[in-house]
């Protein structure tokens, strides 16, 4: 090949050797062997296209799995019990979209309090960024509802259909009575969990105590029933059928989480230097003898693949499909115990440590996320601390700017809209500031129920000879009679001519 190229170059430039300095006599050529492409054998597949192979997750025991289960049970119980809590005689958490009112224990949020909701979402985002930078996708592996409900559905599979090997054999055989009743019971349990999950979730947005009674007595309205069945179908489909597809193809977090990773992020990692080269061996063969022959600690049992909920092989390196659940860590440590090898062939570690360096916990990116997170929490606390549970809106009469009364006074008409954003009824009193000698007509003292918008028309009149200009800046003050520190002063204008 090299000789052929040199001859071709000589044909194109015949005088290259007679002209020194214009071109070297030999052109360096790198010999590249052709890449061998391994095409799949179509004879091994029954279908021309298969979106995925079904993943049969194997049960695993270990400290990480125990912690993940108890951690998931805690937040699952929290999710199920929170709608049933009562506070001051009403549902503690009720996100009433129809009434545009969110009750969260003693706090009531209205559309005017959108900034508080924005701060909560921003804090959640930066908390996720901080945790991901430090410990990878632990949210996905330990707290994500998709993972929690998927493991719950897999638990029903194990109890009804058997172990991983038994489930594979069950799916391979033709339908018979044993397979029929097992499959039917499994899907029945899945649907029951999906319906209870959906009812609980909808119970955050509508009174939960009446929701359950009306649903099971077939008395719910059209929209409530629609949303209950919609979320039930989503739960059943996501946790029962889609499973890892949600984590690997639909969830956007899997796509951008690698941006937050660095060499000091703790992720589930396979120690290649220690494990390779891998291969089966007997327990009686000493580890030292195997190491002398270049054989590593990995016995190639593939248990790390069988317990993975997304079906990846962690030995191929860090992959975006890995959700950092640690199932492969428990499986591998169990094998290492049986072989008499030290644990940690697969572990939560960093790229820096694997390469023999020292992991830096405190680093600029992590500190930056922590600082921004604390600042956002400070803004939320400030917003909550300075929030006034009373809102006043003043609307001037649009028909005429002013009018003259029979007794010669100039009168302006206003409409007050007073929103009581607290969870208790309140008594209020109206005064006008900045206009000496005025006369106020209207109901000056009134009661506004919790969450009610009270509308009160008032008129302000004054002798025109007391006005210094045609436009006077005035202030209408709404004072609480129950709390002397609670008041709102709304500016407006008094017009004449």
From TrEMBL:
Keyword flag Transmembrane: yes
Region (Disordered): 1-25
Stored InterPro entries: 4Fe4S_Fe-S-bd, 4Fe4S_Fe_S_CS, Cyt_c_oxidase_cbb3_FixG, Electron_Trans/Redox, FixG_C, Helical_ferredxn, Ig-like_fold
TM stretches of this protein: 70-87, 116-136, 188-205, 211-236, 366-385
This protein's record includes keyword Iron: yes
Signal peptide, first to last residue: none
Comp. bias (Basic and acidic residues): 1-11
Domain 4Fe-4S ferredoxin-type positions: 288-317
Keywords: 4Fe-4S, Electron transport, Iron, Iron-sulfur, Membrane, Metal-binding, Transmembrane, Transmembrane helix, Transport
Entry-linked NCBIfam families: ccoG_rdxA_fixG
Name of the protein in question: Cytochrome c oxidase accessory protein CcoG
Organism, as annotated: Bowmanella denitrificans
Lineage start: Bacteria, Pseudomonadati, Pseudomonadota, Gammaproteobacteria, Alteromonadales
Gene that this sequence comes from: ccoG_2
